[in-house]
Design goal:
Blueprint (H helix, E strand, L loop, with lengths): L2 H8 L9 H15 L3 E4 L7 E3 L1 H4 L2 H19 L4 H26 L8 E4 L1 H21 L3 H21 L6 H8 L1 H35 L1 H16 L2 H7 L1 H10 L13 H25 L3 H9 L4 H31 L12 H9 L3 H34 L2
Antiparallel strand pairs: 1-2, 1-3
Length: about 400
């Protein structure tokens, strides 16, 4: 290579180099562009007819979306500034959300109440590709916890605006919701009660058990081993195992049935989710207390604090970020596991998932699956931010 070529190479802008993750995003986006963007069904249970991006939208909107996708892929592929990648990712995701609603309106015949239009595999792949771009950019930018929560609120507000505007009303999942709105909110309340209720009970019981295991070392191995065994039981098997004993309790203990205890329903689901929640909370409590600096404990002793005072004023506050991490793990886990409670009459969003599977109506499956995933994601973001905030507070003098 000549000196001139070498000088030209060294002065080439850094953003012209390829981004390794961007190559993966570009490949996923290319596959998404090839696969069907939408599926058209004459009714809710027949096999869908795939529609490409060019078929699913009028010429101008399809051309505009393709242009937006190309710009997004180029920004992902090259080493542009991280803020540019974040902005491009959000812009493409917003365009996909808007145009999938327009696609449903375009493909649905006028006055046809039976037709169903749902997102195709291509849409989901494109959504995944640019969600990956946004996630990577957010990770690299390392925003402060409150900013991350603000971004989450902004995303929720944007989705709420789309729902309120009626842009998605022609999508099949919204048509399924329209006929089941009261049931959807009732099952949503049940889902939240199962997930959050089981975590609340496990927190109230698990933290004292964890403190006891920390203080009484001979007890620690036995308790953690029992909780490990419970954790290895498949969820549906544990739900089933609880039917017989709870049915006996309901039949033989006065007042048990009056407070909702029965062999099937929410009671066995709540007990099973509580049992699954104990191990992470108890083990994280033990680990958090063990990680407290001996110097902090010695300083508390030097100040004349009693054991109880040291526990509540020094050890638990310093261990709280680790304990909160266990609660975060449990909450995200239980939001997903609560879906299975529908199999034993426990209710929740799983009702729609299993009804949809039984009726081969995938849009009904999505009606239960999408809010479950959204709840788990939002809970993870909020609790991650709280863990970071409490970690900073515990490190202060």
């Amino acid at each position: 290579m000549s000196i001139a070529d070498t000088a030209h190479a060294t002065t080439r802008p850094a953003w012209l180099a390829l981004d390794k993750l961007g190559v993966l995003i570009a490949l996923i986006a290319a596959a998404g562009a090839i696969l069907p963007f939408a599926l058209f069904r004459a009714n809710r249970i027949v096999v869908g007819k795939p529609k490409s991006l060019l078929e699913a939208l009028p010429s101008f909107p399809s051309g505009l979306l393709i242009g937006i996708l190309l710009v997004g892929v180029v920004i992902a592929l090259l080493r542009f500034p991280v803020t540019a990648k974040l902005a491009a990712g959000f812009a493409v995701l917003a365009a996909l959300m808007i145009f999938i609603g327009q696609s449903a309106s375009y493909l649905t015949p006028e006055g046809d109440t039976f037709a169903r239009v749902s997102p195709g595999a291509g849409f989901w792949l494109l959504l995944f590709a640019f969600a990956l771009l946004v996630t990577d950019a957010l990770t690299r930018l390392r925003f402060k916890p409150l900013i991350r929560i603000a971004i989450l609120v902004a995303v929720i507000a944007a989705i709420a605006l789309l729902l309120w505007s009626g842009s998605w009303n022609s999508l099949s999942i919204l048509k399924e919701y329209a006929t089941r709105a009261p049931a959807f909110w009732a099952e949503g309340r049940t889902h939240l009660a199962l997930a959050f209720g089981s975590v609340a009970i496990a927190t109230v019981i698990g933290i004292p058990v964890g403190i006891l295991c920390y203080r009484v070392k001979p007890l620690r191995a036995g308790v953690l081993n029992v909780l490990n065994i419970v954790q290895t039981i498949p969820s549906i098997a544990l739900f089933g195992l609880l039917i017989a004993p709870l049915a006996w309790v309901a039949a033989n203990i006065p007042g048990a049935r009056d407070i909702g205890i029965s062999g099937i329903g929410a009671a066995p689901a709540l007990v099973a989710l509580f049992a699954y929640s104990l191990l992470p909370i108890v083990s994280n409590t033990v680990v958090g207390l063990q990680s407290v600096s001996p110097a902090a404990i010695d300083a508390a002793k030097g100040m004349g604090m009693t054991g109880r005072q040291r526990l509540f004023a020094v050890e638990l506050p310093l261990a709280f970020p680790v304990i909160l991490t266990g609660i975060r793990i449990v909450l995200v886990q239980n939001i997903g596991l609560a879906t299975i409670a529908a199999l034993i009459g426990g209710g929740g969003f799983g009702v729609f998932v299993f009804q949809g599977i039984g009726q081969t109506a995938m849009d009904l499956v999505l009606l239960g699956a999408v809010p479950t995933v959204a709840l788990a994601f939002a809970a993870a973001v909020v609790l991650d931010a709280l863990v970071e905030l409490t970690s900073r507070g515990s490190r202060r003098p």
